[in-house]
């Protein structure tokens, strides 16, 4: 009878041991999940920051491109004005030379 009682304790102890092991494994997995959730939150936050920075940089790029285009257009107008003035000066020089030769 005593040996029967002893043998019945062993499966109970095994079950308790198995339950403790399972509780421990569950706890470990829950901690892993929490860690992953924190990492995900951190990654999402960093991604959001980077997207905001990209947007700001793109706006700055558009603004500087607009300034560069304005500068280019001004240079084209200045070149056209200078060419026109040069043509007028050429005509004046020709007319002056004609007058001087007469």
The portion of residues assigned to helices is over 70%
**Extended strand count:** 0
Q: Assign an overall shape.
A: rod-shaped
Mean pLDDT: 88
Order of helices and strands: H
User: What is the oligomer described by this structure?
Assistant: single chain
Show unreliable segments: 1-5
Instruction: Characterize the largest beta sheet: strand count, sense, and whether it forms a barrel.
Output: none
Q: What does the radius of gyration come to?
A: 44 Å
| Structure class | mainly alpha
Strand content: under 5%
How many H/I helical runs? 1
Span between N and C termini? Answer: 150 Å
Features:
102 residues, mainly alpha, disordered N terminus
Describe the structure.
It is a single chain. The protein has 102 residues and is mostly helical. The chain has one helix and no strands. The chain starts with a helix and ends with a helix. The N terminus is likely disordered.
């Amino acid at each position: 009878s005593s040996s029967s009682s002893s043998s019945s304790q062993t499966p109970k102890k095994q079950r308790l041991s198995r339950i403790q092991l399972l509780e421990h494994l569950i706890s470990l997995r829950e901690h892993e999940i929490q860690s992953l959730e924190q990492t995900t939150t951190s990654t999402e936050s960093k991604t959001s920051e980077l997207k905001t920075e990209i947007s700001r940089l793109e706006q700055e790029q558009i603004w500087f491109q607009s300034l560069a285009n304005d500068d280019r257009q001004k240079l084209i107008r200045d070149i056209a004005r200078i060419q026109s003035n040069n043509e007028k000066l050429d005509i004046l020089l020709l007319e002056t030379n004609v007058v001087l030769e007469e």
